[in-house]
Amino acid sequence: MSPITRLQPETRLCGATIHNGLVYLAGQVTEDPSLEIEGQMADILRQVDALLAEAGTDKSHLLSVQLFLADMDDLEGMNRAWDHWLDRDNKPARATVEARLADPAWRVELTGIAAIP
Amino acid sequence: MSPITRLQPETRLCGATIHNGLVYLAGQVTEDPSLEIEGQMADILRQVDALLAEAGTDKSHLLSVQLFLADMDDLEGMNRAWDHWLDRDNKPARATVEARLADPAWRVELTGIAAIP
Amino acid sequence: MSPITRLQPETRLCGATIHNGLVYLAGQVTEDPSLEIEGQMADILRQVDALLAEAGTDKSHLLSVQLFLADMDDLEGMNRAWDHWLDRDNKPARATVEARLADPAWRVELTGIAAIP
């Protein structure tokens, strides 16, 4: 079988798992919950870049992204950070819904799947 | 590596991505938000059929579906459209939860993964 | 193409689908909604173990898990069952958000993807 590689292990989950040419991201949240929505999303996208780099890939290989916004009114602010970061020639599938998150200071959580070239 | 093919690109996402024999659907919502729940779901399933056809597959190859209902009270109406559309010999894994969606007129959003034969 | 195998078919979905060395879990909920959160989560994890065994794999091969809590205040209780069950040498990526579920007695729903060795 293909081996499973695990990145950034925490107490009860890993930041990402790698298997058979795909990387599965855990829910990514900001490391600085004092930030407003655009700052939190930019911070998350930096973490995604770092995880993808550690997995040997990058944002141009994202296949699917799911976004959970604590408040859908933050959609515009979240999208500003997304639009700034996005590789417009290589856009993933994406779904965005509202959901209360584990820490009330978190505004957005991102999960997704990327291919490894 | 397997190449990534992108279907129905929009400003900040693609309607679907294809990689290594799988198609990853973006969150699909109705094109006619004036419809009630059963009509919205039927409209979404028509879009899913079209995306899957463009990817060279069909609903009998759906592996996993996630449904986000703006109001869980719409579960029965959503399921009427689902039951009418479903290939009963080839049912996917499915999860359905409630979540506020980006447009308050949207009643349901669908995402999922399908195999390409 | 790789064939698709379907486990535990129900009226409108399968409990899991298998394709190309991966198993895709449907949303798993408790079979005993009278249980409180920790009991419901332990019950769900027993069902996950059974589904994974039927697919020829186990919890050490989980790649990605998504958890929907009906009330985020149940996070600690859910995590007690998770921590008791988790293979600490083989932790999946995980995302946990709050979402109202189809039955108001359900406290948590789990979905995910596992590799088959």
Automatic annotation (TrEMBL), chains A, B, C:
Lineage: superkingdom: Bacteria
SUPFAM superfamilies xrefs: YjgF-like
Xref: Pfam families: Ribonuc_L-PSP
UniProt cross-references to InterPro entries, sorted A to Z: RutC-like_sf (IPR035959), YjgF/YER057c/UK114 (IPR006175), YoaB-like (IPR035709)
Record protein name field: RidA family protein
